Amino acid sequence: MAVERGDNERYRTLARRTLMLGGLQAGMISLLVGRMYYLQVVESSRYRMMADDNRISMRLIAPSRGLIVDRAGLVVANNDQNFRTLIVSEQTRDVERTLGVLSGIIQLSASEVERIRHDLTRRRRFVPVTVRENLTWEQVSMIEVNAPDLPGVIIDVGEVRSYPLSDQAAHLVGYVGAVSEDELDDDDPVLALPGFKMGKSGVEKTRDEDLRGKAGTSEMEVNAYGRTIRELSREPGERGRKVVLTIDSELQVAAHNRLMQERSAAAVIMDAQTGAVYALASAPGYDPNVFSKGIPADLWKSLLDDETTPLINKAIGGQYPPGSTFKLVVALAGLESGAIGLDHSVTCNGTFQLGDHTFYCDAYKNGGHGTLNFTEGIARSCDVYFYDVGNRTGIDAIAKVAGLLGLGDRTGLDIPGEHPGTIPSTVWKKAHTGEPWYAGETISCAIGQGQVAATPLQIATMVARLASGGRAVVPHVTKDISGEELPAVEWPKIDFKPEHVEAVLAGMRAATDHGTGKDIQIKEPGMQMAGKTGTAQVHAYTVAERDSGQIAKVDDALPWKLKNHAWFVGYAPEDNPRYVCAVLVEHSGKFGAQAAGPVAHDLLLLTQQRDPARINVSAGRQAEPT
User: Fold this and answer.
1) Which CA distances in Å does 263 have to 130, 253, 471?
2) How far is CA 14 from each of CA 19, 20, 239, 263, rounded to the nearest angstrom?
3) Identified catalytic residue from 249, 324, 425, 444
4) CA separation for the pair 598, 601 (Å, rounded)
5) Is there a catalytic annotation at residue 324?
6) Which domains does the chain have, with CATH numbers?
7) Any bridge partners for residue 243, and if so which?
8) Nearest residue to 228 via CA among 59, 342, 39, 26
9) Most CB atoms closer than 10 Å: which of 230, 232, 346, 540?
10) pTM over 0.90
11) pLDDT tens, 593-605?
């Protein structure tokens, strides 16, 4: 019996332990099931997203850059297909052999091969490395034909910026280039995309954000090492906005081609009423297509070393003594300040004496111009007349009127590269040199020499403000952005007396009627122009050179850099001013009427024949002026 009781006790103990162990196992299983339920059901979306983050790589797709078109809708900046070849080292057994075969097809230089090797060592073996961009169709075909001998070499298609007008509008439209480290912006990751280009000059730069567009996205499935397996989805980017310019392509091309007949020159054609710029030309220029594709070092050096400075937009960035074109400012300043009246006359015998210094007129060898009134002083561009007016008026009154006419500061043109020029005053000289102003300096400035400097755009703006009846016209080159036309501006009236402005305009009309510009007057009825010639000295003539009467021979013997600049600025039609043209021929060694005047004649005639103010932006149809 005792044995039987012991067996029962052991059985009960075993049963208790079995029950306890079963309960413990059941509890652990319940805990595991609950945890699995929590992870797989309650937290499923979170872990699915984490898994997708490891499996899916989101990549940005560079957007297509917006078009730039002229006022009639003609494209001046476009996008072309860019064929490029890439190499994936993981997919080729012998990179050196592959590069050797490829070099025989597209003639890779030693520096290119070295750059490719460098890129291959810096990147993972499955990441493509660019071999060369901008392949021709023939090169693409040759690579495809030789594909069996080029394992790991692939052809990719992208976009490259192209400029149909090439050097004829390079300074105006600008070009795109690679994003530098300083230009990277954390708020816009598209800038960091390989091969992405941004505006570097001209309209491309000032309207870069509008033209840039918005990046697209691509979902790529990758393995644990980051290697691409396949593309899951793609959302294309949003193309950049279209920018419409005020420029008339035909006028722009004509202006550039006309200027190319000179060694170095610039021209501006603008609307005296609206400020719209129809042509902004600087010659010689450069091919912006080369910049967008990557300019060779030797070409870059040759552009930098060229004494005609093709990289500078002379129309807005060249600062030159304006010569006799500045006499329009001095004439108006004399009237506005009360220093002279409309009946003011001066007798010119060829020289002007101030203290012990003699200042000369161009008519010095002919005994001077004789007695001239206000209109004839402008028409015949008599230096002695303006020596007298400048001396009576004073530099500060001249500087005030010059500023109101747009000189001495940037005009506000909506492209980069504009320089302010220089309009001196007593305060200006004291601040820059610490010296007082001397009366003799006013005499030089009165004929646009001395410290006075201006850009062709400023000279055009000056005449636009006069021809508009004294309104503060501001030049601009952008008219419309993706259908949103920029609002028209009612330019404020400058506080000039109308009769004074009209007197200056009458002098300009007389200049092309019977004065210094009579030989370049437009003959077509209703298209006659009014204007002002100018010759800006670079070389200071000696008394002996003046007395010789051989100034022309002296000029011919001078180096190009020391020859005189030639100017002409005018407006047309003379009885209803609408179009303004300013032309500078750099170091021409000729008078303004000889070098710059004929260019302005041709451009103002063509401008009136085309009448760009009436060209509809969207379709090129005739419309009311805008």
Assistant:
1) 40, 17, 35
2) 8, 10, 80, 113
3) 324
4) 5
5) yes
6) 59-243 (3.90.1310.10), 249-614 (3.40.710.10)
7) 68, 481
8) 59
9) 346
10) no
11) 999 999 999 999 9
